[in-house]
Amino acid sequence: MNETELILAIESSCDETSVAVVENGEKILSNIVASQIKSHKRFGGVVPEVASRHHVEQITICIEEALAEANVTAEDLQAVAVTYGPGLVGALLIGLSAAKAFAWANGLPLLPINHMAGHIYAARLVAPLEFPLMALLVSGGHTELVYMTEDGSYEIIGETRDDAAGEAYDKVGRVLGLSYPSGKEIDELAHQGKDIYNFPRAMIKEDNFDFSFSGLKSAFINLTHNAEQRGEELDKKDLAASFQASVVEVLVTKTIKACEAYPVKQLVIAGGVAANRGLREGMSAAMNVKLPKVKLIVPPLRLCGDNAAMIGAAAHVELQKHHFADMSLNAKPSLAFQHI
Ligand code: KG4
Ligand code: ZN
């Protein structure tokens, strides 16, 4: 019996082409990430057609590099895992076609993986998961509180009613004249400014676990436009600090409330916005005071953004459950948390 299980994982849902080799769902042997951000920056967002073309150019190179860096060949692998949703359909299809071709050519089973499950399982590359756990998923397209009682089981107990947290960062960044994606830069500016504008904290007192960020975005835009009309220039650092203070306070308050309402052992913060320093610091401070017994897991920065190692970590669970797909597997751009 082969004790080490090696999975080749492929991620191409948005603007990173990534391929990884992951051992037993917990150890990264390689994690190649080819970012396209430079190509999309000048358009102020991800252009789907441009993304697909980059994926086509990069995918084979990334597969070869991932195998070479891990020092393995196809014969050493137990399965091929691939993100089949949610994401851009054209982008997903490139990873899917490559994964199917590789699996078929090498007689390997194919594991279909949900991109958002991947973000949560990035935490598994840091520490073993203990259930029940709560995950705060914050990315460019999602803001959700996910309750998990066991591996591979996801219950969304709260979500955004409008914009995702990352989307709000990127839209506000555009108003500030920052380039896409602007979350990281706003985070840096925020640490140099002060929360002097006191933006609204939407839904913070409501008795649910939902979020809303469009009111904050409008308040931000109104403030900056009014100042512009008066010929005043507002300090970008204070604007960033005020915006971030609102986002972080809402995310932290609602997440703590959720962790108090459910019997959780761990809290995982996942997705691109999990890279936010203000959120990491704010959550850690609040957890120490309010829920010292709940363990906080925040993946390192390189595992917060899109990458294939997290897909390989989530795939380990699916392999144990024999959740295989056949060659008819299609991309599901709006895939939610449920199994095929
Ligand atoms: O998970 P991700 O890489 O892609 C999606 O699946 O959406 O998340 C990208 C999002 C972008 O909106 C980006 O602005 C945001 O994550 N982001 C951040 C930070 N780093 C990336 N937002 C706030 N603070 C950061 N440090
Ligand atoms: Zn993502």
TrEMBL record:
Localisation: Cytoplasm
Keywords for this protein: Acyltransferase, Cytoplasm, Iron, Metal-binding, Transferase, tRNA processing
UniProt cofactor note: Binds 1 Fe(2+) ion per subunit.
Gcp-like domain location: 27-312
EC code: 2.3.1.234
Cofactors: Fe(2+)
Main subcellular location: cytoplasm
Catalysed conversion reaction: L-threonylcarbamoyladenylate + adenosine(37) in tRNA = N(6)-L-threonylcarbamoyladenosine(37) in tRNA + AMP + H(+)
Ranges in coiled-coil conformation: none
Stored SUPFAM superfamilies: Actin-like ATPase domain (SSF53067)
MF terms in GO: tRNA N(6)-L-threonylcarbamoyladenine synthase activity
The family this protein is said to belong to: Belongs to the KAE1 / TsaD family.
NCBIfam families linked: gcp_kae1, T6A_TsaD_YgjD
Function: Required for the formation of a threonylcarbamoyl group on adenosine at position 37 (t(6)A37) in tRNAs that read codons beginning with adenine. Is involved in the transfer of the threonylcarbamoyl moiety of threonylcarbamoyl-AMP (TC-AMP) to the N6 group of A37, together with TsaE and TsaB. TsaD likely plays a direct catalytic role in this reaction.
Protein name: tRNA N6-adenosine threonylcarbamoyltransferase
